[in-house]
Amino acid sequence: MIDFLVLAAEEGAHGGSFSEGGFFADTAGIMLISPFVAFLLIIWLGKRMRNDGAEFAIGAMAVNLVWASVLFFQNMTEGIVREVHFEIANIGRFQGREMIFELGWMVDGLSIMMYFVVSFVGLLVFTYAVGYMHGDRRVPWFFAAFSLFAGSMLILVGAPNLIQLIIGWEGVGLASYLLIGFYWEDLENVKAGNKAFLTNKVADVGLILGAILVGMSIGDFSFPAISEAAAAHSEALGAVAFAGGLLLFFGAMGKSAQFPMHIWLPDAMAGPTPVSALMHAATMVTAGIYLMARTFPLYQAFAEENGIREWMIPIGVITLFAMGLLALVADDIKKVLAYSTVSQLGYMMTAVAAGGYTAGLFHLFTHAFFKALLFLGAGSVIHAVHSNNMSDMGGLRKDMPKTFWTFVIGSVSLAGIIPFAGFFSKDEILATLDYEGYVAYMWIAIAGAFVTAFYMTRAVALTFFGTYKGHGHPHESPAIMTTPLILLAIPSAIAGFLNIPGVKLGSFGNFTEWLGARIVPMGDHHPEAIDWTLAAYGLAAGLGGIAIGWLLYGRDAETQLARDRLEIPLLYPLLRRKYFIDDAALGLVGFTGGPLARATDWFNTYVLDNIVNGVAGAVRYAGRFVYGGLDQRGIDGIFNGLSAVADSAGSSLRKLQTGRVQQYATSVVIGALVLVVVVVILQ
Q1: What confidence tens digit (pLDDT) does each residue in 341-384 have?
Q2: Going by C-beta distance under 8 Å and a sequence separation of 6 or more, which residues neighbour residue 381?
Q3: With 50 as the cut, is the pLDDT of residue 592 above it?
Q4: What are the backbone dihedrals phi and psi of residue 51, each rounded to the nearest 5 degrees, phi first?
Q5: Amino acid 640: pLDDT
Q6: Strand 97-107 relative to strand 82-94, pairing
Q7: What values do phi and psi take at 5, rounded to 5?
Q8: Tell me: the pLDDT tens digits for 465-499?
């Protein structure tokens, strides 16, 4: 059964009615399906193709980009709010409503933005991967799993309800496990994949329980129903808003690597670099932020009543600052970027938790471009020098000019330097914290901007300046790898202009209005102009980080170790041990896999098994007694005895039936005489 439900609000968040979206909204499901078609085609035909099946993967993402771009443009001009769903099964009746299991897709400001990000970044990363993975092992399987990765993310962001979101959520987790452990011949890579998978499984418990709690409270798992119930301050939803909201947040903490569940993300660098780029920019780690944004009305409506923000914001703030510090001591260039991603996810989560729906998602939008650019740039360097370690690099700007300049653009955008994209999105987060009254957290976020600029300056200096300290002869990557870098550098530089406070792009509006096309207005604060005083603080922090970083790392030395000479007592040893969080986690795993596992095995073998075996023995004895004693010897004996008596009597009486009339007449006469005698005696 196919049902098309048009959800159009009379007034949008910023005025104006929303459109139904037409053909491209009706058929947006093509974007969800095409990567899975590519997945099957690659498995079937990949080894026979010139580029090992990459043609199918790239083709699917190209089709998706067409649909996403048209929808993005339509949403800019008129706003689209539409849901298309397929009824799969009737779950039952609850809270006076029929609960229906549905699959389908959402087309609104939030999902359209994510469709575009996943498709645009995905297409460029897939294209880049053709050059990066050339001659590598299991290339068809790589592109098959890569397509599964992108497809699962699209299933997630297109979900009209929590059930489909969980399906996509688990698909993303599975694909990431396969890709992180892609080089499974190395045990460390297998451990990294297991670590990511298991950490996320712990968090997924929160997501599933939260979904059940929220969905069952109103008798509907659909996002429009949850949003409308939140907007109406439903008593049923309000009763579970705190517990349900925290459980959903716990699930988001795992996917979006929030402290202390961030431990899996740096190890996820074990996979091929294109995987890292897509994971950190457009899939996997953004899923948690997306979940918070999709369920934002739940947090917004009950924020004051239950104080849920006070639990969420500190987690985001710790993540944005403390996890960013870990990049200061990393030598692996990909791990520097990984800790940077954790920190930036902290900015996004803090903004959304503080009520900055648009601020958090605009940073997600800009971050997707410059973080994909930085990871692909790092991959280009690794491809050239055959090492991940910056201690084996240096002086590469001369041999790799395209990689160098695009990497610099990504770095200054990440550092929040005007006029690059990161400046505008990070400034909006600072403005949100200031407006909502979280001034102390705002200053920590500004300090985090200093740290970001500092470690990115270190990475640029150690990688591209000085003299080359590695082996071999580095060279610029081929065009199939550098072209995506150039195309990503463009939005990394200019995407911030899409959402300058108080500025509209003519009749197209701005990012805030595009994102606000939803069934329930988000109600977050939107400044009318840039607060230049606050912006100056953030910019000064970024410029200060660059200046101090260059003073410390800009000068060359005989070795990279000599250049990377900064050592802050107490802090740096603590950072190298990752605040002992990994040690605690490994200790817990070790205890779980060691003494606890042995104790559990002993309890299972000698207690549970004996109980089960004892019960089974008792049941077997009781069965034998009932069958052999009561049934066979008792009940069957009685009936068999009665049968034998009846048979014996019948056999004796049968002898009287001779068929002789004289004998029968004699018997009658004798019987009559006996009766006469009895009657006489009785009288």
Answers
A1: 999 999 999 999 999 999 999 999 999 999 999 999 999 999 99
A2: 333, 393, 396, 400, 403, 407, 463, 474
A3: yes
A4: -110, 30
A5: 77
A6: antiparallel
A7: -115, 120
A8: 999 998 878 899 999 999 999 999 999 999 999 99
The amino acid occupying position 24 is F
Partners of 4 in beta bridges: 84
CA distance 9 to 217: 24
Cα dist from 535 to 101, 121, 174, 316, 596, whole Å = 47, 28, 41, 21, 53
The whole-number pLDDT of residue 589 equals 67
H helix intervals, 285-356: 286-294, 296-301, 303-306, 309-325, 333-353
What are residue 389's DSSP bridge partners? 332
**Tens of pLDDT, residues 152-199:** 999 999 999 999 999 999 999 999 999 999 998 888 889 889 899 999
Comparing 87 with 321, the larger pLDDT belongs to: 321
Length of the chain: 683
Closest CA to 127 of 62, 223, 222, 215: 62
332, 388 Cβ separation under 8 angstroms = yes
CA distances from 629 to 498, 618, 637, 642 (A): 88, 15, 10, 18
Q: Considering Cα of 291, then 295, then 301, then 306, what sign does the dihedral take?
A: negative
Spatial contact of 251 and 206, defined as CB atoms under 8 Å apart: yes
Identify whether the C-beta of residue 313 lies closer than 8 Å to the C-beta of residue 350.
Answer: yes
User: Which of 33, 296, 294, 4 shows the shortest CA–CA distance to 162?
Assistant: 294
Peptide bond before residue 419 is cis, with ω within 30 degrees of 0:
yes
Tokens of 562: 């000599």
By CB neighbour count within 10 A (0-12 exposed, 13-18 middle, 19+ buried), where does 610 fall? exposed
**Model confidence pLDDT, tens digit, residues 460-469:** 999 999 999 9
Q: Contact, 230 vs 301, CB < 8 A? A: yes
Measured between alpha carbons, how far is 580 from 149 in angstroms, rounded to an integer? 31
Please tell me the pTM assigned to this model.
0.85
Among 565, 566, 559, which Cα is nearest to 393's? 559
- From CA 511, how far away is CA 500, in angstroms rounded? 9
Residue 161 contacts residue 102 (beta carbons within 8 Å): yes
Query: Residue 54 in contact with residue 134, Cβ under 8 Å?
Result: no
Q: Where are the alpha helices (DSSP H) in 181-285?
A: 187-218, 223-231, 235-255, 264-267, 273-281
d(CA 482, CA 124): 10
Burial per residue of 353-380, b for 16 or more beta-carbon CB atoms within 10 angstroms, e otherwise: bbbbbbbbbbbbbbbbbbbbbbbbbbbb
CA 110 to each of CA 16, 24, 587: distance values in angstroms, whole numbers, following the listed order: 17, 16, 40
Tokens of 400: 């790799």
Taking the C-alpha atoms of residue 644 and residue 638, their distance in angstroms, rounded to an integer, is 10
Q: Using alpha carbons only, what angle is made at residue 653 by residues 649 and 659, rounded to the nearest 5 degrees?
A: 160
Question: Token pair 């200054």 is at which residue?
Answer: 412
* 226/298 Cα distance (integer angstroms): 7
Q: Is the pLDDT of residue 8 over 50?
A: no
d(CA 93, CA 87): 15
